[in-house]
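ESCALATION

Customer reports they have been waiting on this structure for their group meeting. Please prioritize. Original submission:
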Amino acid sequence: MTIQNSDPFIYPLIDVRFLAEEADVSILREGCRTARRLFSAPAFEGSVFGSVIPPENVTSDQDIEDYLRNGVRSFLHGAGTASMSPKNANWGVVDPDFRVKGTTGLRIVDASVLVSFFRCRCEITAERCLIALPPKWSSASGSVRVCRAG
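Update from on-call: job pushed to the front of the queue and completed.
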């Protein structure tokens, strides 16, 4: 991740390094082949009528790799990647007030702070954070400026 400038409301540049390692490509390529073998089994006859992703004509190692490199994307919101822990704990990324440990003036306010599988809606976490934000974070109009990703 690279910060573009000093404006905290400008999104950072994020390179998640999809398929940066040859092992990543090999694993996904074999996953495509395994799925094709599975769904071509007699148990799926009459239910599965061919490969759509990747298309049936994508068969060679190079074709599958090209398809993966052009199509792999993240579509799920990461949760638990910046886990919350007690203020004095030597583990976790943020404290219960969403402050990033070891920094000043930096908070993380999204589902990444949730430690494990969560059964509450992300809005509950956002509400908790708004309660934790000190009044000095309010803008001149009296409301907190919210920056939404995506």
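Sent to customer with the following note: The helical segments are 22-39, 61-71, 122-132.
Escalation resolved.
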